[in-house]
Design a protein that fits this description.
The chain is an alpha/beta fold and 402 residues long. It has three domains: 8-77, Arc Repressor Mutant, subunit A, CATH 1.10.10; 81-195 and 359-399, Nucleotidyltransferase, domain 5 (2-Layer Sandwich); 208-353, Nucleotidyltransferase, domain 5. It has helices spanning 8-26, 31-38, 42-54, 120-133, 174-182, 191-202, 261-265, 267-276, 284-289, 293-314, 323-344, 360-378, and strands spanning 29-30, 58-63, 73-77, 83-90, 93-100, 105-112, 141-148, 151-153, 158-160, 186-190, 210-216, 220-226, 229-230, 252-253, 256-257, 318-322, 350-353, 398-399. The strands form five sheets. The protein has a six-stranded mixed beta sheet with strand order 10-7-4-5-6-18, with helices on both faces. Strands 13-12-11-16-17 form a five-stranded mixed beta sheet, with helices on both faces. A three-stranded antiparallel beta sheet has the order 1-3-2. A hairpin with a 2-residue loop joins strand 4 (83-90) and strand 5. Helix 10 (293-314) packs across helix 11 (323-344).
């Protein structure tokens, strides 16, 4: 089998991509530090930094202190090399964040929306306001990723299984209209899948070989991470486990028999379970926060019932619990779920509560947009697999269109 020899230009490109990845991972580095990390000689490292600085991808950010001789210049990725945006869409509002290519969030706001109306005006208005707050124009963005409660089918440009209050988002061709109106790269993704992306990048999981992320709030969903890649299914519907049948439970919700996982552990089911334990609450998360040991055990048993067939099929290294219901239960609920899961299953996946700080859907969408931008700006396919360093965000007041 013949192989194409590595040309000097190709080798330079590989070295440039490697250097940019290291600067994103480790922050400012000197020429000597970069040479040591890449294995390049000092002259080659100097030439590399010169190329990247001339291209506007790298900037000097100071000098190193201490040591013998003159202080060495420190280099970092130029934050202005590209900007991206993310959206988290739920009934009544769109959350928007804008960041530079280093993942520093420079604007974040919430924008109120109407019910069952064309989403396009809200998307364009929310994005225009967020970019203006960041001192940018929409056309300055390299990518936008939109998180939606439902499964987006790229083949038909259609959102399937949307929230009952977001049926307008299910109109075929909507994403194409948004792309045409904005004139930038736009991607739609299931909100729970985006939470899974945020979990791998920001959750401190320690690079597991695979994990399943269970989202429990009013609705239920699952993200399946296999070695850093999401499993989406043929039509983007992988993880819609609220529809998973749960036969033979004998439980009822509002007097109706439990048919699927949503009936067993969705918001209404958790509230009814809480009431049976003498806990009055207006939301499932509130019920869990007020929950007693007996109530948490009963809820954990229900969650383990749904997780057991998933774990038996996927055999994940780890299960992460998130969504407002599970976040309210934290480590105490996760420990109970693990115990119940291990009682019914010979496999032994660890179960843990999420460690992502902030809106996981918005952050996961931002991480996905950053992957797209870095691939485009740096020309580096491998950068998408590198961890993204998260920066603190600032919550803005909600606004509505005039």
């Amino acid at each position: 089998m013949s192989r194409t020899p590595g040309t000097p230009r190709l080798l330079r490109a590989i070295n440039d991509r490697t250097a940019l990845g290291l600067l994103l991972e480790q922050g400012p580095l000197s020429r000597v530090q970069l040479g040591m990390l890449t294995g390049l000689s000092k002259p080659t490292a100097s030439q590399l930094l010169g190329r990247l600085e001339e291209a506007g991808l790298v900037v000097q950010v100071g000098t190193s202190a201490g040591g013998r001789g003159p202080n060495a210049a420190l280099y970092a990725v130029n934050p202005s090399a590209a900007h991206v945006a993310s959206m988290d869409v739920v009934p009544g509002r769109i959350a928007v964040a804008v960041s530079d290519i280093t993942a520093q969030v420079i604007a974040e706001l919430e924008y109120r929306t109407g019910a069952d109306t064309d989403p396009l005006p809200y998307v364009t208005a929310a994005l225009a306001e967020a970019t203006a707050e960041a001192g940018l124009a929409v056309s300055d963005l390299a990518a936008l990723v939109i998180g939606l409660p439902g499964s987006y089918d790229q083949n038909t440009d259609t959102l399937r299984h949307p929230d009952d209050e977001l049926t307008a988002w299910a109109r075929p061709g909507l994403l194409g209209r948004i792309r045409a109106a904005l004139g930038i790269s736009v991607e739609a993704e299931n909100d729970v899948n985006l939470a899974g992306i945020a979990e791998r990048h920001r959750g401190g999981l320690g690079n597991p070989s695979s994990f399943a992320l269970l989202w429990v709030a009013d609705g239920i969903g699952l993200a399946i991470d296999l070695g850093g890649s999401l499993h989406r299914g043929a039509t983007g519907g992988a993880g819609e486990i609220g529809y998973m049948p749960i036969p033979g439970r004998g439980a009822t919700v509002h007097g109706e028999p439990v048919r699927d996982f949503q009936d067993l552990a969705g918001g209404d089911a958790v509230l009814e379970l809480a009431a049976s334990h003498g806990i009055n609450a207006s939301t499932a998360a509130e019920a869990v926060e007020r929950g007693t040991g007996a109530f948490l055990d009963a809820l954990a048993a229900r969650l383990a019932t749904g997780l057991a067939p998933i774990a038996a099929v996927l055999d994940p290294e780890l299960v992460v619990l998130t969504g407002s219901t599970c976040r309210a239960g934290g480590d105490a609920l996760a420990a109970r779920v693990q115990r119940h899961l291990w009682q019914v299953l010979p496999l032994r996946p660890a179960v843990t509560a999420t460690r992502v700080d902030g809106n996981p859907v918005l952050l996961g969408a931002l991480d996905r947009a950053l992957e797209t931008a870095r691939e485009s700006v740096f020309g580096a396919q491998d950068l998408a697999e590198r961890p993204i360093t998260a920066a603190p965000t600032t919550q803005r007041a909600a606004r509505s269109p005039q």
